[in-house]
Write a structure and sequence with these properties.
Order of helices and strands of chain B: EHEHEEEHHHHHEEHEEEEEEEHHHH
EC number (chain C): 1.17.1.4
CATH class of the largest domain in chain A: Mainly Alpha
Number of helices of chain B: 12
Distance between the termini of chain A: 47 Å
Structural class of chain A: alpha+beta
Helix content of chain B: 25-40%
Enzyme class (chain C): oxidoreductase
Largest sheet of chain A: 5 strands, mixed
InterPro entries (chain C): Ald_Oxase/Xan_DH_a/b, Ald_Oxase/Xan_DH_a/b_sf, Ald_Oxase/xanthine_DH-like, AldOxase/xan_DH_MoCoBD1, AldOxase/xan_DH_MoCoBD2, AldOxase/xan_DH_Mopterin-bd_sf, Xanthine_dehydrogenase_dsu
Strand content of chain B: 15-25%
Radius of gyration of chain A: 16 Å
Largest interface: A-C, 59 and 64 residues
CATH class of one domain in chain B: Alpha Beta
Oligomer: heterotrimer
CATH architecture of one domain in chain B: 2-Layer Sandwich
Number of strands of chain B: 14
GO molecular function (chain C): xanthine dehydrogenase activity
Protein name (chain C): Xanthine dehydrogenase subunit D
């Protein structure tokens, strides 16, 4: 079957999609967007987290046909997505990366990096929803994203850092 | 495999009548796992995401009419007042990502004994609105589960809504898993006080081939509360009563040993959860007179 | 040579630009960081090629069976299928592979020895086509009785896993189902026992842990016009793979060109081959690029696991807490194939006494062949199992003596100069007592952190977490300590070396160093450290990291905590060769202009040649001109020697790494659920080459130890079948299971090692597990001799 949907603001089309294919497979193997990762394919690791019409979901558990006509944001489009949301003066924005991406690099939250794309999408959505999360809020929001390398401490640091930078650079009066 | 994309409920029913083996898929959180791991190759996948009414809910006088595809995250955010037990149960489902997709309709369709919503539905009181081109039936949730991963749906039927009694008293939900998040239940327990009818209902998950109500325990506790005049006095439940309730809940289980836990542990844990959650709902009842709280006392919304 | 069209995505050079700072001891950013946060980093599962096929593996549903027949005809007829391969299609006489013992069939022949063993391969134009075709391969199995524990493996009539063994260990093992056995005898444990005022014994068990790296086994094999193959792969050791792959393919090693693709974690699980040979075979047969990606289910069958172990220990001590002797017997289950079992046995035996002074010991460690899943390398490698047991023993001994458990450990702590049971002296700092002192001195975390101002508990801070099982009822806090010792680098006489190639040249008016090694960057940050070393040694800002491949010599494995030591050592060594060449060229070109050129004490700093007094002699740009300077060499650490097969004596290890943990847990004593509140760690790293990265290693290792303590286990039933091959039922810690992990890093230099550094990756995985268990025991009063501890064990039902 053919599926057509928007990824990171661009219309994508895929043909000859097998009906059992997931959104993850179509992104990775048919649309040239392998940033979303295939670590478990059972919704237990969050490595494939994307925004589907704004909601963070596991792309491995969405059938490709279900995405017809909908909007997807992947890690490849996260910087652009954050820029449009936050404005170019951006809260904690640094160059080509979303604030949360820069914070992950700076805090040492990236080791093998396989969990990173999903964590970034989830963490960015958390800060969007809750600009000053407590540690417990961060842990809860990221509890669907497994990381095997870092022990999560530097991921906590990264999200705190991204939130703090956003806060520091926020305008005094909204 | 064929992919069906009905645009309306009527189209969905017609498609299901034409292709009884079609597997409905909404959030995909169960079905896609089975497809990804090659456990299932249905002839048809039927996407229900375009059927708008399945994503909607209505709050009536007596019940919440919950569309089958309403994701758990919406129940947590929007329905914690009316359905506190189900909101708590929803909060224990998978991960935030799963809660954004998974739904009570899916939990019922899969009918896994470990489904998180079942004990809360059993405790609150609920009916499943099943529909086919032949008509509509309302199945009490107790009768809906017929076996391990089997339910009362006919092959041409789809779940449209679940009618859940609005809370008239405190409700609680507890689940044991060997991880502090994103875990399948080893066993689970839901309890609801119903001050209007002066009854207590208790639902048990993952401790028998199907989710079930602990009816003997419910009857015992109802009688004990009544005899002791506790509904009116709001006095503390005597420890012996709580203990007996817990034991009867344990006794209601018919668990197995599996990779997630032993039968003996499940029985034990259900008793502990029964005793504790009873304590919580009763404290809440005492504190508020008609103790309805938003998330049943747990601060984790 | 190379294929006419390359893959659509390939690993790339990593550059960080001119404004990059950060030499040894600093924490510069990872060179692959930006690619990894933007999704552009090319992992092995991201490889893609025009017209590529998908490979699929048919695996045995049985743990032990005779293969009566295999019929592939129906599978071959499926539209879209390009090849179906079985044992009969293997091109050469070499049908097996293996790290040390070549006992692992590429595809099963006549017999399968474990659940999930590969039997046949399919290549098709879509993964689903391949799966459906694989399902149509008819294999007629006749099930055989299984060997699944020591008793069944060593029974008189036990089926032999490998009846025709001719490996080096076959001659000295007591039974053909024993892969390797290593006794160690030192002093006179029997006589020493008579001096003991107290003796404690214990039987302990460690479950089968999985590495559970997130990036699945995967790669792309591209057939080349020269009849060879280009393989893009995630592995821990390219050249070890190469030496196993090429003979099976019947190709000379230079025709199997391997490039390391992005590796999504490893932890030992990629030391053995998985899909490498399979993908190459399919590519060579079909003439098309073939990609294989395991899903999580298959991944659990696709790599070896940590050896489950049963351990028996006896310790004695005098009233004042001095250990008199230790006896132990460690039985490791190696599963169906040898993998790294012999080396794991050597580690378990030689480190079985822990970081303590014990002069009189009787030790026996062995690994079994069984029909259970093959076990091999995992972070901690034999030392993890022993540490769990000896640390439990220390607590038991302390309790018996009525002594504080940290004080008991302090009184017996080894130090520099202590002799190991192997007779080898520890010849670098061994600050065991100091590490314990430091973790004990850290402030304890606040009590009852679930309590909130509003009075309603925050369940996220309680055992059970979001599952809402307690609001404080039944919750008891416990505190526990543990310390461990891990060897660094390859031991027992292995020729452990690494190769580096470094080029210094002027690019765009700036001096740039290019570092080329075959080191597998698996996430640990070795490439960051290589760039730091190059900056420090060559005085440049810009360093380019060349993709790791087999066009340069071996870097050895990314395992055994060895890469910063050995490949880091190689990079340092070769940078110094480059520096000498640069200075030589400088002397030739400019020597006559300044007398200081004759001095031996010249340095490269800030892009310039300077004297040790800081006087600038020339810029690197001027010295180098248009001509790059390049050097390549191997570098080795001190040689080690094999352990004596009877006494276990020998200079077996090159270096040791020590870490101590204090665990603070809260246990729901009625439900048996555990919340780890804090896991404080103190570790000596010799030299923190990159403080941020080494903290990350310590915290990551700590959490893997936590996982083994309370949740992680591959459950194998009595028929040797795996019961939980999924992330639904093999649980690893989430961020809500993970505590704060304060880290105290010591830097006591090892004079034998580059920069004084000490391999750091594994030690934290050792002591974390027993510390958590000690804390749970303290909270519950239960003996808990097994990990992972399950709720059933805590509540004793």
């Amino acid at each position: 079957m053919r599926v057509t949907f928007t990824v990171n603001g661009r219309r994508h089309e895929a043909d000859d999609v097998w009906e059992g294919e997931s959104l993850l497979y179509v992104l990775r193997e048919r649309m040239g967007l392998p940033g979303s990762k295939n670590a478990c394919e059972q919704g237990e690791c969050g490595s494939c987290t994307v925004r589907l019409d704004g909601e963070p979901v596991c792309a491995c558990l969405v059938a490709a046909g279900q995405v017809e006509g909908r909007e997807v944001v992947t890690v490849e489009g996260l910087a652009e997505y954050a820029r449009e949301r936050d404005g170019s003066e951006g809260r904690g924005s640094t160059g080509d990366l979303a604030p949360v991406q820069q914070a992950f690099i700076d805090a040492g939250a990236v080791q093998c990096g396989f969990c990173t794309p999903g964590l970034l999408v989830a963490a960015d959505e958390l800060i969007e929803r809750n600009p000053q999360p407590t540690d417990a809020d961060i842990r809860e929001a990221l509890s669907g994203n497994l990381c095997r390398c870092t022990g999560y401490e530097k991921i906590m640091d990264a999200v705190r850092l991204a939130a703090a930078r956003a806060d520091d650079s926020a305008p005094e009066v909204v | 495999m064929e992919f069906l994309r009905p645009a309306s409920w009527e189209e969905a029913l017609a498609a299901k009548a034409e292709h009884p083996s079609a597997v409905p898929i909404a959030g995909g959180t169960d079905v896609m796992v089975e497809i990804n791991f090659d456990h299932r190759r249905p002839t048809h996948l039927m996407d229900l995401n375009r059927v708008h009414e399945l994503h909607e809910w209505e709050i009536g006088d007596e019940t919440v009419r919950l569309g089958a595809s309403v994701p758990y995250s919406k129940i947590i955010d929007e329905l914690a007042h009316e359905l506190p037990g189900l909101a708590l149960a929803s909060h224990t489902v998978g991960s935030p990502q799963i809660r954004n997709r998974g739904s009570v309709g899916g939990n019922l369709g899969a009918a896994s004994p470990a489904g998180d919503s079942h004990p809360a539905l059993l405790a609150a009181g609920a009916e499943v609105e099943a529909e086919s081109v032949r008509g509509t039936r309302f199945i009490p949730v107790e009768d809906f589960y017929t076996g391990v991963k089997r339910n009362a749906l006919a092959e041409d039927e789809l779940i449209k809504r679940v009618h859940i009694k609005k809370a008239d008293g405190p409700q609680q939900f507890s689940k044991v898993g060997t991880r502090n998040a994103m875990v399948i239940a080893v066993c689970a327990f839901g309890i609801a006080l119903h001050p209007e009818t002066r009854t207590v209902r208790a639902g048990i998950g993952s401790a028998a081939p199907t989710p079930l109500r602990a009816r003997t325990a419910e009857d015992f506790l109802g009688a004990a509360l009544e005899e002791g005049g506790l509904w009116d006095s709001g006095r503390t439940i005597p420890p012996s009563v709580a203990r007996e309730f817990a034991e009867l809940c344990s006794g209601a289980c018919n668990p197995i040993d599996d990779v997630r836990g032993s039968a003996a542990y499940r029985r034990r844990a259900v008793g502990v959860m029964a005793r504790r959650t009873l304590g919580w709902v009763w404290e809440s009842y005492r504190a508020t007179g008609n103790g309805r709280t938003t998330e049943g006392g747990a601060q984790c919304a | 040579m190379a294929p006419t069209t390359g893959p659509g995505r390939t690993p790339t050079q990593l550059d960080q630009g001119a404004d990059t700072k950060g030499g040894v001891g600093e924490s510069p950013l990872r060179p692959d960081g930006t690619l990894k946060v933007t999704g552009e980093f090319a992992y092995s599962s991201d490889m893609w090629h025009e017209d590529m096929l998908w490979g699929c593996t048919l695996r045995s549903p049985h743990a032990h069976a005779e293969i009566v027949s295999v019929d592939i005809s129906e599978a071959l007829e499926q539209p879209g299928v390009h090849a179906v391969l079985t044992y009969d299609d293997l091109p050469t006489e070499m049908k097996n592979y293996g790290l040390e013992i070549k006992d692992t069939p590429v595809l099963a022949h006549g017999r399968v020895r474990h659940h999930g063993e590969p039997v046949a391969l399919v290549a098709a134009d879509h993964p689903e086509t391949a799966r459906r075709a694989a399902a149509k391969i008819k294999v007629d199995y006749r099930e055989l009785p299984v060997v699944h524990d020591e008793e069944s493996a060593l029974a008189k009539d036990a089926p032999l896993l490998h009846p025709d063994r001719d490996d080096d260990h076959a001659r000295h093992v007591p039974h053909p189902n024993v892969v390797h056995r290593q006794p160690i005898v030192r002093g006179d444990a029997g006589a020493a026992a008579r001096r003991a005022d107290v003796i404690v014994t214990g039987e302990y068990e460690v479950g089968m842990q999985d590495q559970a790296f997130l990036g699945p086994e995967s790669g792309l094999a591209v057939p080349a016009e020269d009849g060879g193959v280009d393989l893009y792969i995630a592995t821990q050791w390219l050249h070890s793979d190469l030496r196993q792959i090429a003979p099976v393919l019947g190709l000379p090693e230079e025709k199997v060109r391997m490039t390391l693709s992005g590796v999504g974690g490893a932890f030992g699980g990629r030391e053995d081959l998985s899909m490498q040979i399979h993908a190459c075979l399919l590519a060579l047969v079909t003439g098309k690029p073939v990609k294989i990606v395991y899903n999580r289910f298959e991944s659990f069958f696709g790599h070896v696991h940590r050896h489950p172990a049963k351990l028996w220990y006896e310790h004695g001590a005098t009233r004042d807490g001095k250990i008199t002797h230790m006896k132990c017997r460690i039985v490791l289950d190696g599963g169906a194939y040898a993998s790294a079992s012999p080396a794991v046995v050597g580690n378990a035996a030689s480190l079985s006494v822990g970081p303590y002074v014990v002069d009189d010991v009787e030790i026996e460690a062995l690994a079994l062949y069984t029909n259970n899943p093959p076990c091999g390398a995992m972070r901690g490698f034999g030392a993890v199992q022993a540490c769990f047991a000896y640390e439990a023993q220390m607590d038991k001994l302390a309790a018996e003596l009525g002594m504080d458990p940290v004080e008991l450990r302090r009184r017996n702590a080894m130090s520099q100069g202590t002799l190991l049971p192997t007779g080898q002296a520890v010849d670098s700092p061994a600050p065991v007592a100091e590490l314990l002192r430091r973790v004990k001195a850290m402030p304890l975390p606040l009590e009852a952190q679930w309590e909130t101002v509003g009075g309603e508990p925050d369940v996220r801070a309680l055992p059970g977490g979001l599952s809402n099982t307690t609001h404080g009822e039944g919750v008891v806090r416990g505190v526990g300590y543990a310390v461990g010792i891990k060897n660094v680098g390859f031991s027992e006489g292995f020729d452990d070396y690494s190769t580096a190639r470094v080029r210094l040249e002027v690019v765009g008016g700036e001096p740039v160093a290019m570092v080329h090694t075959a080191m597998a960057e698996v996430g640990q940050g070795g490439i960051t450290v290589h760039a730091q070393i190059a900056r420090t040694e060559l005085g440049v800002a810009q360093v380019t990291i060349h993709p790791a491949d087999t066009q340069v010599g071996s870097a050895g494995s990314t395992s055994a905590s060895r890469q910063t030591y050995v490949t880091g050592g190689a990079v340092q060594h070769v940078c110094r060769l480059v520096r000498e060449q640069v200075l030589e060229r400088g002397r030739e070109r400019f020597g006559t202009y300044h007398p200081a050129w004759a001095s031996a004490e010249l340095l490269l700093e800030g892009g310039k040649v300077v004297t040790d007094g800081g006087e600038v002699l020339a810029s690197l740009v001027d010295v180098l001109g248009d001509e790059p300077v390049e050097a390549e060499d191997e570098w080795r650490h001190r040689p080690t020697e094999a352990f004596d097969l009877k006494t276990g004596q020998g200079f077996g290890h090159v270096q040791y790494s020590f870490a101590a943990h204090r665990a603070v847990v809260e246990v729901d004593t009625e439900l048996g659920l555990v919340k780890v509140v804090e896991l404080a760690c103190a570790q000596d790293v010799g030299k923190a080459m990159n403080p941020q990265a080494v903290e990350g290693q310590i915290q990551g290792g700590t959490v893997q130890g936590l996982g083994l303590a309370v949740m992680e286990e591959i459950v194998v039933d009595a028929r040797a079948k795996v019961r939980n091959p999924s992330f639904t039922d093999y649980l690893i810690p989430t961020i809500l299971d993970t505590p704060t992990i304060p880290v105290d890093v010591l830097e006591l230099a090892d004079e034998h090692a580059p920069y004084g550094l000490r391999g750091a990756g594994e030690a934290p995985t050792l002591s974390s597990t027993p510390a958590v268990l000690a804390a749970v025991r303290a909270a519950t009063g239960r003996a808990l001799p097994r990990v992972p501890v399950r709720p059933e064990h805590i509540v004793e039902v």
